[in-house]
Amino acid sequence: MSREYPTEIAGPYEAPPRSFVDDEGRAIELRRYGDDDFEDVVEMYLAFDPADRAQGIPPTGESDVREWLDSLADGDFVAVVARREGAVVGHAVLVPDRHGDFELAIFVLRAYQQAGIGTELLEALLGAGREAGVERIWLTVERWNAPAIALYRKMGFEASDTDSFELEMAARLAD
Amino acid sequence: MDLLLGIGGSEDSFRALEETLERASETGDSLTVAIVENPESETDVEEIRGRVEAALEAASFDAEIRTLSGHPGSQLLELAEREGYDRIVLGGGETSPLGKVELGSIAEFVLLNARTTVTLVR
Q: Using CB atoms within 10 A as the burial measure, which of A7, A35, A89, B2 is most buried?
């Protein structure tokens, strides 16, 4: 694969746990994902607005959601959850590809979008990734999704393959 | 119905072939398999032809196999329009490690440019 990674290192960002108050005054907690979080993450995806799906994920329907989450937890993945009053409202994950690089995805429930949670959650994920020894990260995003693209740029991602149908972006966490 | 299936050697293109053979065996559609040069695939034309022939034989299905050289998407479209195929069939993309659907470059070109109906097999 001919993906180009930026030479500059993104961040460094602080690893979780940490807490913050979002732009709507809600107290949000960020933590590394653990097996105990599985059921609450399933709950979050069952409440997920299908209009916010991207390229077929998350799947719809409980059994497909469970199967998909199981498949993400295979291997050396890194994940962070955002909770508000106990319930999971955001989930971000790094999953290894065949080359030892990591693909990134982040999902935030509709009611919690545009409140600064995505930025905090991404920073926490990149911090957790760096702590876990992740060096190179890539993602794909729909070209029309300007808010997401702006957020990824701010975090240190650059377009890495301009030919593809979806925009591919990459970031470097370590040399 | 006359189907034109484009195959460039990616796994999703072979999946599309399998499903199309299964369906065409039931419906009686006629099928042409066009082998194209997919820059994203490392499988060469002879290897693809071998796998296509094996799949046809396993399904006891008779289909013409053609080889198209040059830009795969535009060559497929040209053939479909010139010979009046009813439908172009292509693989519907691979999935990323995270499970995201990633459309191949041939499917993208064909979808955006075709005047013929296109089926993507998922």
A: A89
| Peptide bond preceding A12 in cis form (omega within 30 of 0) | yes
ipTM of the complex: 0.84
- Omega of the bond prior to A6 within 30 degrees of 0, cis? no
pLDDT > 80? residue A2? no
CATH of span A18-134: 3.40.630.30
Q: Which CATH number fits domain B2-121: 3.90.226.10, 3.40.47.10, 3.40.50.1220, 3.40.50.620?
A: 3.40.50.620
Domain borders along chain A are 18-134
Residue A9 one-letter amino acid: I
User: Is A55 in Cβ contact with B100 (below 8 Å)?
Assistant: yes
Residue boundaries of the structural domains of chain B:
2-121
* A133-158 residue pLDDT tens: 999 999 999 988 998 999 999 999 99
Q: Quote the CA–CA distance of B15 and B29 in Å, as a whole number.
A: 18
Contacts A93 to B, Cβ<8 Å: 98
Instruction: Measure the CA–CA gap between A144 and A57, rounded to whole angstroms.
Output: 17
Whole-number Å distance between alpha carbons of B11 and A152: 31
Interface A–B counts its CB contacts (< 8 A) at 43
The answer to whether A93 contacts B108, with C-beta atoms less than 8 Å apart, is no
Peptide bond into B72 cis (omega under 30): no
